[in-house]
Design a protein that fits this description.
Length: about 240
């Protein structure tokens, strides 16, 4: 019979931290629950490598116990505008396959959650946080509630303790059903400094966000809904 125990203050948690506002807010939620947070970022060949700098800064600013960065190569697989040569298209220009825009990175969250699951098993953490959201998002299949539910079923079988009837590692997506505006208001209430975050798919070498990709537009719309001003710089700051 599977051992069950609630996650409580002082327990370890792994937080997938991309450097964007969603994952920064998810980290703040985990820390707000008194968890000992170990942040994990992945350099997978994305154009937006500067988001990794943001992730490290967010981890330090919010007070995570440790920050870890792993490098893997999804660029060699391709299949996404985020890793292939050329400019990342805006939402009106992006081609779609099965209704999913070309900014979708095939199986990315499955890869990232698998790495986080392994890391959690090694350090003795029983919960992994991810900033996935299914309200203000681009329709990616691995950002939906049913995907997280399915991965939780996998997680019970995929690691030594859980598969032996012990305590399983759980995946939590605390922002799943929030709008971007609600996420930002929550983060501000928890002390997130969004000036440290980076959401753009293709920022400049100087660290300015493009203001035209879908991620930038969703972010700006969220700040408007939250009644706040996005503190980061843009090449072009469009009206939302």
């Amino acid at each position: 019979m599977t051992a069950r125990r609630k996650i409580s203050a002082g327990d370890k948690a792994v937080v997938l931290l991309s450097g964007g506002l969603d994952s920064a807010t998810a980290l703040a939620v985990a820390l707000g629950r008194g968890l000992e947070c170990h942040t994990l970022s992945v350099h997978y060949g994305q154009h937006a490598w500067r988001e990794l700098v943001s992730a490290a800064a967010v981890s330090r600013a919010l007070g995570a116990s440790r920050h870890q960065e792993i490098s893997i190569d999804l660029k060699s697989i391709g299949g996404s505008a985020l890793v292939e040569p050329g400019e990342v298209p805006g939402p009106e220009e992006a081609t779609r396959r099965f209704g999913i825009p070309e900014t979708y990175v095939p199986a990315r969250n499955t890869v990232l959650l698998s790495l986080a699951l392994g890391y959690a098993e090694v350090i003795g953490a029983y919960v992994v946080f991810i900033g996935a959201n299914s309200v203000d998002y681009s329709g990616y299949p691995d950002c939906r509630p049913e995907y997280i539910a399915a991965f939780n079923r996998l997680a019970k079988l995929a690691v030594a303790e859980g598969s032996s009837g012990g305590r399983p590692i759980r995946i939590e997506a605390p922002l799943m059903r929030l709008t971007k505006g609600e996420i930002i208001r929550l983060g501000l209430s928890l002390g997130v400094d969004y000036k440290l975050t980076m959401s753009c798919y293709q920022p400049t070498q100087q660290g300015l966000s493009c203001g035209r990709c879908e991620s930038c537009l969703l972010r700006l719309k969220g700040f408007e809904e939250a009644g706040s001003v996005d503190p980061i710089g843009y090449v072009v700051r469009p009206r939302t």
